[in-house]
Amino acid sequence: MEKDEFGRGGQPLAKSLALVLLGAGITIGGQALSALVQPSASSQPTATDVFWNNGLLSRQDSDTQTSEMQPPSSDRPAAVAIAPSVSTPNAIADIVRRVGPSVVRIDASRTVQTSLPPIFQDPFFRQFFGNSQPQGEQVQRGVGSGFVASADGQIITNAHVVDGADQVQVTLKDGRSFVGRVMGSDPVTDVAVIKIDANDLPPVTFSNSDQLQPGDGAIAIGNPLGLDSTVTAGIISATGRSSRDVGIPDKRVEFIQTDAAINPGNSGGPLLNFNGEVIGVNTAIIQGAQGIGFAIPINTVQRISSQLVATGHAEHAYLGIQMVTLSPEMKQNINSRPNRPFTVQDDEGVLVAQVMPNSPAARAGLRAGDVIVAIDGQPVKDGGAVQQVVEQSTVGQELSVTLRRDGREQTLTVRPGNVPNQ
Description:
By secondary structure, the protein is α+β, with helices and mostly antiparallel strands. It has a domain at 317-418: Roll (Pdz3 Domain). It contains eight helices and 24 strands. The strands form four sheets. Strands 1, 18, 19, 20, 21, 22 and 23 form a seven-stranded mixed beta sheet that branches. It has a six-stranded antiparallel β-barrel with strand order 11-12-13-16-15-14. The chain has a six-stranded antiparallel beta barrel with strand order 5-6-7-10-9-8. The termini are close together.
């Protein structure tokens, strides 16, 4: 996967914000993530209710509150379209009544082997317990959300909601419960598709997330902290937040930022516009922040989910380079290093800092020190733009890469490969 080693404007990223993937019980960025834990009875195997992510299920006790934001004032200019008209005071309630039956609760669990306490491993003490000694197993459970994508039972959710699960249960708004089968899961974009044996379900309506603007209205429906069918509302705070911007550079998503309240358990639930159409999938929050949540744009979700349904996996084109976004300051910083492998002559563009061995970029002849200025005729000024063009291409497709090398411009042809280790 391509990596932009520095932030926007060519400055090294120095964010200390801890990103919380919803439904998680893990630590990211060196900061602890809060989780809601409800210990179970002591029967074997032990059952522990946690919110978890990426197969790393753990317990952490914490008091967590769910905050709700009221819809913004409706006396703003109509062109901004951030709230329903006062002539329809129940607009959000009407949307929830219409879309609510399409939102589901997802309970995922897996059984893990745990180490026996030393006392049970000591032969002297083992004689006192006989066959009643613990079996070394623990059932770990997580709660998330999802929504109906098709009438025949396809459910969209986050990959981290079902990651590592050996049992998935889907509960509809009307109380019916089904065993779910994971059709495919893509950790690169955090999208997964579940199938349940049901028909005539009410599917959601999709919007075009490419048309979103900051200030547009947003409604989130899900099961935060296990509180089923919770509704919050706000606005779109920003669009195009790169995964590096929000602290998870291993993802390939241009996130929607919203101030609609999102909490652990909202993962996989829909983010709606004020027409009741899905514009994104709620995914992440930043620990300790208020009014900063992130969703995967629905256009990305549809593209990935169609691959998951068809083949069970998703492909992501990659070149195999590490990149640095150039600026006059970055140029000076690199050239001032005594052991630099090359000298930078450009004040802008995307510097190839490293080329991975045996990668598509290496086979095409790219070198460290090259400065990318365009891909397929599209000018690029930062690493995020390169990543976006490559992600929108297909594996094996020819891409023309225009670059400057030793003061001269030239064009190479690269055939992107699939991201390794998927």
